[in-house]
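On clarity, I found the account of how folds are encoded harder to follow than it need be. Since the whole study asks how a given chain folds, the encoding of that fold should be made plain. For illustration, here is how one protein appears when written out as sequence plus C-alpha cells:

:::
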Amino acid sequence: MNLVYDVAIVGGGIVAASIAYQLAPHLSVCLLEAEDQPGYHSTGRSAALYMDSYGPPVVRQLTRASLNFLQQCPDGFSQYPLISPRGAMMIASPGQVDTLDAHESMVRSTGAPIRRLKPE
C-alpha cells in the first residue's frame, strides 16, 4: 500500500470525488473520508436532480457542460447509469403566481421542456 501521495483530498462527497477523478490520471491521489461511506453528508442528501434551468446563469452553464459526462461517462467509471430522465413539479399558492410566472419564463428561455398545469 502506497503511503505517499501527491495530493490528499479531504471528504468523500461529489466535489471531492470529482476532483480526485480529474487528478488521478496525472498524480497519485488519496481521498480521505471519515464516514463509513462516501457521499454521506450533503451529497447523500441531495435530491440528485439534473435540472439545466436551476440556479443563476453560471450554475446553469456548468450544469449543461456536465451533461455529456453524465450521459456517457468513461468506461470503468461506474457500473450504473449516472442520469435518467425524470420530471419535477413546482407548486405555487395564489400569492406566489408572479414568482411561478417568472420561473416558467426563465425555464422556457433555456429551451428546457416545461408544461403548465392548471388547478382544475
